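Hallway conversation turned thread

IA: we were arguing at lunch whether anyone had actually written out Sdz-33 F-box domain-containing protein end to end. Turns out nobody had. So, for the record, here is the sequence (306 residues) and right after it the structure tokens. Reply here if something looks off.
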Amino acid sequence: MGHHEIIAYSFTSKKSLSFVQSLGLPLKKVRIKMEERPRIYLHFRPISVLFKLRMDGIVGGMTSLYQIPSDVDVTVQTIDNSRMFRRVTNSTTFTWSNQEKSIGEWIRYLCSIFRCASYEARFDLFNTRFDLQSLRNTFPKLRRIAIDCFDVEPSEEDIQSFQNISRALLPHAENVELFLEGNISIQHIGMANLKQLEIEYPRNPNFDDLLTWNVERFITDTEHFSFRDLNRFFKLWTKGSNPRLKYLAIDGEALEDWNVLLKGLKAEKVGRRKKYTIQNCVGIRARIKINNDIDTFVTVKFIVLK
């Protein structure tokens, strides 16, 4: 039986579901996309099964996890990963009934069938409201969370949904990715014990906030940033701040000449390119790499050396 056939069989009775669960069949990864028409990807490698929850007749698509989809498109794909770019070599789509299950129930059901150690989800805040209790009741322990909010002026409902998602799911997450165009506080996310935090937004990042964060890796792509502020951050690192930070990468337009970045750091040049080494108060060394070959666009990387 194919993976989609096993899932279909599990719907026939409670006994069938228990039997399928008892097999402990392995699943490489589960990706969930919470948008107007939610999608659930089950990656078995090289087979992937995509569940697209259709919201036909529902104006605006999904607005809560309690809604019941009109039906479900199930697509079985064979993926070729042997080349540089993954390629779909075979794809077949079936239409299933909604099984009288809500969106949240579909997520819980599919995540309960197989043995999987990696769950991740992406949330689109546009027109969708996520309450705290339904989030906690629906999602497994997510390893990776991504949240998108493209409104320059997010509504109170958007901000509340953002806070609910982070409060409900952040305790188990290792990696968080944020795309925020509006002014939404992320201080509580930076203070979580994350392996990586990635943020894309057009505002000037506040490196003073970074001093209180507890992430190992921080990556940001922004419109512009200040070398002077980043220099102050590196100076505080040399005095012992941010001991957990191992990697920092910033892309954007710099507001000053790049030499401002190294002022007072006692940096040692490495090689011919713009690579420098600095050291903190306990002898830990870090490498600073600067790439500004494209006009005023600059990439700065900070890497703690082993």
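OS: looked through it. The chain has three domains: 1-117, 122-203, 227-236+244-305.
IA: good, adding that to the notes. The first strand starts at residue 26 and ends at 27.
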